[in-house]
Specification:
The chain is α/β, with parallel strands linked by helices. It contains four helices and three strands. The chain has one domain. Helix 4 links the parallel strand 2 and strand 3. It comes from Streptomyces acidiscabies. InterPro entries: DUF6879 (IPR049244).
């Protein structure tokens, strides 16, 4: 099932106990983040004090006893976008309580 916009948000807003996201693509780009991967590839690192609305929501859900996680299926070598996503987002999202798991299909 592919969801975005309000349909995607509604799934999380109606979550009772847990929400899992399955990611299978090497690139997920949203218009509001289009410039960030390019800056990362140019050498800019994510700020140490990084925070986002997503992290605030994850913290709130986990404080309510809810579980938020994702599994990303991939094969190496990592795409430029995945290198960006791991460094810029994932390392911070786990500190907010999101359970992020990687399934590497590389032989």
């Amino acid at each position: 099932m592919l969801l975005d916009g309000d349909a995607w948000s509604d799934c999380f807003d109606s979550m009772r106990s847990e929400a899992w996201r399955l990611e299978t693509l090497p690139v997920y780009t949203m218009a509001q983040e289009a410039e960030k991967p390019a800056r990362f590839l140019a050498g800019e690192k994510s700020p140490d004090g990084y925070a986002s609305a997503w992290m605030d929501e994850v913290r709130a859900w986990t404080a309510e006893g809810k579980y938020v996680g994702r599994v990303h299926i991939l094969a190496r070598p990592l795409s430029d976008y995945l290198r960006f996503e791991f460094e810029y987002y994932y390392r911070h999202h786990v500190t907010a309580g999101e359970d992020i798991r990687i399934l590497d299909l590389t032989d």
